[in-house]
Design brief:
With about 80 residues, the protein is an alpha+beta fold. Helix content is about 25%, strand content about 45%. It is globular.
Amino acid sequence: MIIFSSHSLLKLKQRDISSQLVKKALKLPDHQFSSYSDRKIVYKKFNNLYLRVIYKEKRNDIFVITQHWAKRIKEKS
């Protein structure tokens, strides 16, 4: 199950990003990296921008922390 944090839900509205795009990025990422505190980052390209999604896996769930648009992939976070 994909669970959106309250922060993530707020940023979806502020950044005009649909939850469906986030789910697509999580299911079929173009790039995937590990980050600090067991966080993971995925990038999925939509048109000329990448959707960057930061999340944690807890048991069998994906807990989305935040998401935003990026012009390029940043490997170190």
